Amino acid sequence: MAENSKTNTDENSFWKKHIRTIPGRPSPKKVISSSNNNSSSTSFQNFKRSVDDVWDCGVADNEFANESNISLTDITICKTIAESAAINVINNHKIKTDDKSQLDILPMKHANKQNISFSKCNIIKNNNDDGTSKLSKFEALLQTNILELDELKKLSWSGVPHKIRADTWRLLAGYLPANIERRKEVLERKRLDYLNVVQQYYHTDRDEIFQDIYHQIHIDIPRMSPLITLFQQKTVQEIFERILFIWAIRHPASGYVQGINDLVTPFFVVFLQETLNDNDNLDRVDVSTISVDLRNNVEADSFWCLSKFLDSIQDNYIFAQLGIQHKVNQLKELIQRIDLTLHKHLLKHDIDYLQFSFRWMNNLLTRELPLRCSIRLWDTYLAESDSFASFQLYVCAAFLLHWRDKLLLEKDFQGLMIMLQNLPTQDWNDSDISMLVAEAYRLKFIFADAPNHLQTNCS
Questions:
Q1: Is residue 146 part of a domain?
Q2: Is the pTM of this model over 0.70?
Q3: How far is CA 3 from the centre of its chain?
Q4: Residues 120-174: pLDDT tens digits?
Q5: Is the pLDDT of residue 417 over 90?
Q6: How many other CB atoms are found less than 10 A from the CB of residue 188?
Q7: 434 to 25, 77, 152, 202: CA distances (angstroms)
Q8: Can you give the pLDDT at residue 207?
Q9: Is the same domain home to 282 and 359?
Q10: In the listed set 287, 311, 335, which residue is the last one of a domain according to the structure?
Q11: pLDDT in tens, 216-256
Q12: Number of compact structural domains in the chain
């Protein structure tokens, strides 16, 4: 492995230590409070040093940040950016002359207080924004010497063009630096680091101490997306096994948890598509015929981006998955506040929110949506950056409310559970996901800052 810069704490160690504070899990409260006092850089540097073993920030990164006057504490997408992006999702869709169809969004009784009208929206794919015009904006931004990450988030929130999605995701995930001159060097070094670690430690799957981890991964991988032939290929399954195994032994606080395997799929598919020709059918590609070097690059990029992404939701995968249980309770209280009729209907028929929404939270809706829609949804998730964890609550709320009328027609436990576990999303496309995230933003805008937006007892 390439040597990283050293500090007083063994920063070049690849393995996480058994300490009370788990590296890679920033405290949102500390980050917010530090932005308003003069010691923010010091506190952030302390945080940064605590996760150097994960992200190899090093002295060069600090020097680059200082020289470029980039605020390292500005790690969350601000409300104005999210608001602008969400409204753009709505405004950028026009009615075609040959298609006058409309899609309703559930009216909200609180919407008038915010002077926002989202009750009806005309939605259809806009060729101009999803085509040359939007792509040119991305390409121009990606070619700047010092990338404006907030601008990239703003553009990505409403979807990333296929052609430059892989590069954009690497930057949004924090895998690549903002300095365009350093990207190639960092990419080559991180790929080599991962390859060295696999060669050095993957054989430990035979050790008794790691048998449980390897056994569970080995069971879950063949079950993953059984209807997609790509994931049934032996070469692909071996790639997933290595990614998940290395991630698990580097995160002993959680280890491998069922569901993490689904979170690899969007990254893997996006980076795999980058290696293919535009005319190649992804479901028919034999990954074993792709060169070893390209396969190794796809695997390494998927691993590092997954690691960075999971840092913000580590609580979801610790013992008893308390983070997810907390979010399920929040979803229950939020739906009670938004739509008491639907909430009472579910309770009346003995539907526990944990029975259906635990999977939504655990797999980030990857099992509820077609793969193409999951990838589009993750454009927004990655653009939300470290505030993604709170935003996903509202995505799940919007997702449940989307099926409100059909759920109210079901009159027994069995009918409700069958529908909630097999929602008819097979025909969804990018437009449906754009509407979903726009509705999620609307709910967040209305309820997140309300004093009692998650109160248990509603008047």
A1: no
A2: yes
A3: 30
A4: 233 333 333 456 799 999 999 999 999 999 999 999 999 999 999 999 999 999 9
A5: yes
A6: 12
A7: 29, 18, 17, 40
A8: 64
A9: no
A10: 311
A11: 888 889 888 878 889 999 999 999 999 999 998 888 877 88
A12: 3
Q: Which amino acid is at 220?
A: D
The single-letter code of the amino acid at 299 is: E
User: Nearest 5 degrees, angle CA 311-CA 316-CA 322?
Assistant: 135
Distance CA 252, CA 304 (A): 17
| AA letter at 101 | S
Domain end call among 311, 334, 365: 311
Give the distance from CA 230 to its chain's centroid. 22
Helices marked H in 157-259 — which ranges?
Answer: 165-172, 180-201, 211-223, 234-250
Is there a single domain that holds both residue 243 and residue 300? yes
Which sign, positive or negative, has the C-alpha torsion 266, 433, 169, 251? negative
Mean pLDDT of all residues in 171-194: 96
Q: Please, are residues 265 and 232 in contact by the beta-carbon 8 Å criterion?
A: no
Is 281 in the same domain as 348? no
Q: What are phi and psi of 62, to 5 degrees?
A: -65, -45
203 and 286 together in one domain: yes
Please tell me whether residues 295 and 368 are part of one structural domain.
no
User: Nearest Cα to 459, choosing from 352, 331, 351, 336?
Assistant: 336
Instruction: Tell me which residue range forms the domain holding 42.
Output: 28-68
Q: Are residues 300 and 331 in the same domain?
A: no
* pLDDT mean across residues, the chain: 77
- Asked if the structure places residue 59 within a domain, the reply is yes
Split at pLDDT 50, 70, 90, the class of 356 is very high
Q: What amino acid is encoded at 312 in this protein?
A: S
